[in-house]
């Protein structure tokens, strides 16, 4: 692992640890938009149609999406960089499994996952580390298994926040287009299936991008 990768892991982890409680209270159930939920439902159907092996929810936060997958009949577990987030998810969803980890180095055997969900978690991965994450997706997915990513999109760029929920943080956001995400997945050996852009709603400042792909 390079120093730059270690740096981004450390700052992202410490930032989410700092505001984990406030984040979970601000977004108690997440995914307020019907389109978001419908795309996850479609992802769950693809998992069940292909190979109902466990699905990894990468960047699982308080665990509400992992729980949603479970309610849709998909065996799912959560992985998050933040120990504080993992603790909150375990408390809220004691039947489900959550552990601390990074999508850039998944502690999972090859070709064991029935799918990967990464909602608003690749946004914190810098350009130099993103190919490593996508290579891990390819390595751990079973043939035919889907992967669904969601991310803030719009004009490509980089944001740096030093405060959130009243806490001092050091959190970086990388804004990418669906085309850029799709190109990265293709480079990792994954096949694109669909991409969607949803315009901002309510308090959202930026459009949401969704990319669905699969491992052949």
Task: Give keywords.
single chain; 216 residues; alpha/beta; 7-stranded mixed β-sheet; two-stranded antiparallel sheet; 9 strands; 26% strand; globular
Would you mind describing this structure in some detail?
There is one protein chain. The protein is of the alpha/beta class. Helix content is 37%, strand content 26%. It has 6 helices and 9 strands. It has helices at 3-26, 34-50, 64-71, 83-92, 130-140, 178-187; strands spanning 55-58, 76-80, 97-100, 115-119, 146-152, 157-164, 167-175, 191-198, 208-214. The strands form 2 sheets. The chain has a 7-stranded mixed sheet with strand order 3-2-1-4-5-9-8, sandwiched between helices. Strand 2 (76-80), helix 4 and strand 3 form a beta-alpha-beta unit. Helix 1 (3-26) packs parallel to helix 4 (83-92). The longest helix is centred in the first third of the chain and has 24 residues, at 3-26. The radius of gyration is 16 Å and the shape is globular.
The count of helical stretches stands at 6
Largest sheet: 7 strands, mixed
Helix/strand class: alpha/beta
* Spans where pLDDT lies below 50 across 5 or more residues: none
Shape: globular
Report helical residue fraction: 25-40%
Major sheet strand order: 3-2-1-4-5-9-8
In terms of DSSP E residues, the strand content is 25-35%
How large is the radius of gyration?
16 Å
Tell how many strands the DSSP assignment holds. 9
- Average of per-residue pLDDT values: 93
In whole angstroms, the N-to-C terminal distance is: 28 Å
Order of helices and strands: HHEHEHEEHEEEHEE
């Amino acid at each position: 692992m390079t120093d730059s990768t270690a740096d981004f892991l450390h700052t992202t982890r410490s930032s989410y640890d700092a505001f984990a409680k406030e984040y979970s209270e601000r977004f108690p159930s997440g995914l307020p938009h019907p389109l978001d939920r419908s795309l996850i439902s479609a992802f769950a159907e693809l998992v069940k149609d292909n190979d109902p092996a466990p699905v990894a929810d990468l960047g699982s936060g308080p665990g509400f999406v992992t729980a949603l997958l479970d309610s849709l009949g998909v065996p799912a577990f959560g992985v998050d960089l933040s120990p504080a987030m993992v603790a909150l998810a375990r408390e809220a969803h004691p039947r489900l499994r959550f552990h601390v980890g990074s999508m850039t180095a998944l502690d999972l055997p090859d070709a064991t996952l029935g799918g990967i969900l990464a909602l608003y978690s690749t946004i914190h991965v810098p350009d130099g580390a993103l190919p490593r994450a996508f290579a891990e997706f390819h390595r751990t997915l079973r043939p035919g298994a889907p992967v669904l990513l969601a991310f803030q999109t719009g004009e490509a760029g980089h944001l740096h926040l030093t405060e959130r929920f009243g806490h001092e943080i050091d959190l970086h956001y990388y804004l990418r287009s669906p085309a850029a995400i799709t190109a990265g997945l293709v480079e990792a050996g994954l096949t694109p299936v669909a991409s969607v852009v949803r315009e901002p709603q309510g308090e959202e400042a930026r459009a949401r991008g969704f990319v669905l792909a699969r491992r052949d």
